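Our consortium's second objective concerns turning raw sequence data into structural hypotheses that experimental partners can test. To show how far this objective has progressed, the report includes one record in full. It was chosen at random from the queue rather than selected for favorable results. The single chain below, 64 residues long, was entered without modification.
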Amino acid sequence: MALSISMSVLLLIIVFMLVNKAGLKAVHAIVCVLLGFYLASSSVAPTIDDLTTNVADMIGGVKI
């Protein structure tokens, strides 16, 4: 659960920065949020969840 909260906060910060700095319009951000909700309720949601979990595990396993 901590991973999903962190990912949500990170994506929220990225969208906020894109709206303020890169000229992304608020309408585009809303469309992206709606796409996320539709993807979450689709049959591809478990695949996306597995992908993000694997990528987070891979990043977490990197030793510097």
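The partners drew two points from this record. The CA atoms of residues 8 and 31 lie 16 Å apart. The chain has one domain: 1-63. Both points have been shared with the crystallography group to help prioritize constructs.
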